[in-house]
Write a structure and sequence with these properties.
The complex is a heterodimer of chains A (about 425) and B (about 240). With about 425 residues, chain A is α/β, with parallel strands linked by helices. Chain A has 10 helices and 13 strands. The mean pLDDT of chain B is about 95. The chains are: A alpha/beta (about 425), B mainly alpha (about 240).
Chain lengths: ~425, ~240
């Protein structure tokens, strides 16, 4: 995932001009609906850094012996839902957790590739809670709440500890320390990741915590059950109406409170990177029961998807992040200047450490670079068509979707384009894909 | 190499307070479903952070504020309110199954998607949003007259599931466009063509729109009510955000 948002090209391409030189935009017309009421977010008073700590202290506690008397309804079992259900059950509450998927493991959090930010400053590159807070506020174009964002930055470090304790296999350096990368244009390296499967691994962690509570009997799991309405009793959310997606039975569940962890509404655009099942129904039903829907026009568009192939395509798929910037697993360069025997040894080790697969792939790529353009495909290749037709054709066919550019006599640079027809761009490699 | 943009994440969501509770007491909203942390644009690798922060570290502390005085107030699931809500859901299901029209659910979803993407996609302007707001209600009307949901309610029925969701999208899409129309500024993921600098960067209007717009449902067919939560910046000072 990435933060980038695509917008239309500037209408006036008169070179880079200072934003201050802009003519005044049309003045906003009076609001169609004048603000009826000012909402109170109940932000605790006091210094920004102390708000959450103080709020935790001032929040009401419930005696452990009494917690089992409460029943909490959690709708959704992605990262937010599974982690909330597991945490609350661990504390002693009775939890009912609902998801429309066959299993909580099928929640769409699983598709997140990029990583998870945390202000750990492991890289000693100037990161801090305040910097993560500042970046998030600024990245959000100054349209989020300071107090909420500061709290998010504050607890971010604990998330990593929690997940490591659960066994989430975050990437590590050779020495065993957790690895970080810079992501989404951040100036510091604060993103923890587990290859291209961060969402999946985090979900498995939350899922295993949830399963433990299911086995204990403190969470009752209702898979393939879709929430279709929210029930208010005397103005309080006290239950939901659900449909069993297998039998079609419509039933109600009562609880002391309801947690909606039902994800976003990107599928209103039909084509999106969301799973086909992602929907707005739970949120929208709550809205129709009186919950306020905030800022629905804030939607994020990712610039690098695999293009739509036809009218009947039902969803879009992201390209690997490694095509965009910080690709993992680049082939080791053999041309490094070696100055000492120690570094030669280190290089030897690192070569041995590089997976055999990577080296095999490299060899296959080199062979392909000299192979003729495969006639069945419409790739444009600068590769001379006379070159070693017999020798390398087998491997060339095997990776016929390899888009190649090369400079004669040098090791070719290339990128592998995942099943995109008519790639005619001699696109310089910016990394290997992880597809 | 050809690339194509795609809707990926939605920063908006149900309004919540600092405790992650919506304006309905007892209704908490976590993760992407709420609106609270990403403002107008989410940073890479922050979605997972927010989902887990809400679930592991925020809600366990804040839920007590609501629950403590609620001890023993859990209603029975056969109360009148539940029966009424159930009856409404059944009625809606029966209605969807009874239309027996000519078009599939996916047809309407695709049509809605086309309107949303063409008129309220990467860049929006008042004219395109007006057009969307004019085209969605007839589409919704046609959906309720001409959708074909095969099968029955008392069994596995994927079309029925989709139909219920698309019916909600057909209403929600209108709300999204209305919000986009009323936010007369560009910020983060919301780009209004009328508000840009000459070099194409987003032009915020802090004076008029430094607030959260929260929409209140006021009845079928009625225009929702726009409520406002002003955003106060004590620590950081809003500056021009450049994507260059």
């Amino acid at each position: 995932m990435s933060s980038s948002t695509v917008r239309k090209a500037p209408k006036d391409p008169a070179g880079p001009s200072a934003p201050t030189a802009a003519p005044a935009p049309p003045p906003p017309a009076p609001a169609l609906h004048p603000p009826a009421a000012v909402l109170d977010a109940k932000i605790p008073s006091g210094a920004l850094e102390k708000k959450w700590e103080r709020h935790k202290f001032e929040s009401k506690l419930i005696n452990p012996a009494n917690r089992r008397k409460y029943e909490i309804i959690v709708v959704g079992s992605g990262l937010a839902g599974a982690s909330a259900a597991a945490s609350l059950a661990e504390m002693g509450y009775k939890v009912k957790c609902f998801c429309y998927q066959d299993s909580p493991r099928r929640a769409h959090s699983i598709a997140a590739q990029g990583g998870i930010n945390a202000a750990k400053n492991y890289q000693n590159d100037g990161d801090s809670v305040f910097r993560l807070f500042y970046d998030t506020i600024k990245g959000g174009d100054f349209r989020s709440r300071e107090a909420n964002v500061y709290r998010l930055a504050e607890v971010s470090a604990a998330i990593i500890d929690q997940c490591v304790a659960q066994g989430v296999p975050f990437a590590r350096e050779y020495g065993g320390l957790l690895a970080n990368r810079s992501f989404g244009g951040a100036q510091v390296s604060r993103t923890f990741y587990a290859r291209g499967q961060t969402g999946q691994q985090l979900l498995l962690g939350a899922y295993s915590a949830l399963c433990r509570q299911i086995a204990e009997g403190s969470v009752t799991m209702y898979p393939r059950t879709e929430m279709l309405d929210l029930v208010l009793v005397d103005g309080h959310a006290k239950g939901i109406v659900v449909r069993d997606m297998v039998t079609g039975a419509i039933t109600s569940h009562a609880g002391d409170c309801v947690l909606l962890c039902t994800g976003g509404y990107g599928n209103v655009f039909y084509l999106s990177t969301n799973a086909k099942g992602c929907n707005v129904t739970a949120s929208y039903r709550a809205y129709k029961r009186g919950a306020l829907f905030a800022n629905p026009c804030y939607t994020q568009i990712h610039p690098t998807c695999i293009p739509q192939a036809g009218e009947y395509q039902s969803k879009l798929t992201l390209m690997s992040e490694s095509l965009r910037n910080d690709g993992p697993a680049k082939s080791p360069r053999a041309t490094a200047t070696i100055t000492s025997s120690a570094s030669i040894r280190a290089l030897e080790i690192s070569r041995r450490g590089t997976s055999r697969r990577a080296r095999r792939r490299k060899r296959a790529m080199m062979a392909a670079a000299w192979a003729p353009a495969v006639s069945a495909s419409t790739w444009t290749s600068r590769t001379p068509s006379s070159a070693s037709e017999k020798g390398a054709s087998a491997s060339a066919t095997a990776i016929s979707s390899t888009c190649i550019t090369r400079s004669p006599g040098k090791m070719p640079t290339r990128c592998r384009c995942a099943s995109i027809p008519r790639c005619t761009t001699p696109w310089a490699a910016s990394g290997w894909t992880t597809i | 190499m050809r690339i194509y943009p795609a809707v990926h994440y939605t920063m908006g969501g149900l309004w919540v307070d600092y405790d992650l509770m919506s304006n309905i007491p007892g209704l908490f909203v976590l993760g992407e479903a709420n609106f609270s942390d990403h403002g107008a644009n989410r940073l890479g690798a922050s979605a997972l952070m927010q989902g887990l922060a809400d679930g592991y570290f925020v809600i366990p502390y804040t839920i007590g504020n609501y629950l403590a005085p609620q001890m023993g107030k859990r209603p029975a699931a056969n109360r009148e309110e539940f029966q009424k809500a159930e009856a409404e859901v059944r009625e809606r299901t029966t209605r969807l199954l009874g239309i027996k029209g000519k078009r599939t659910v996916d047809h309407f979803h695709r049509e809605l998607g086309r309107i949303m993407w063409d008129y309220c996609g990467m860049a929006r302007n008042a004219k395109s949003l007006d057009r969307a707001l004019k085209q969605i209600p007839p589409l919704r009307e046609e959906f309720w007259k001409n959708v074909n949901v095969p099968g029955e309610g008392e069994a596995l029925n994927v079309s029925l599931e989709k139909a219920g969701r698309v019916a909600d999208f057909l209403e929600f899409g209108e709300l999204l466009c209305l919000d986009a129309l009323e936010r007369r500024e560009s910020c983060g993921g919301h780009f209004r063509e009328e508000w840009q600098y000459p070099d194409g960067e987003a032009r915020r209007d802090d004076e008029h729109f430094q607030h959260v717009a929260a929409w209140e449902f006021t009845g079928e067919g009625a225009k929702p009510n726009r409520q406002v939560e002003p955003l106060v910046f004590d620590t950081v000072h809003p500056s021009v955000r450049s994507y260059k």
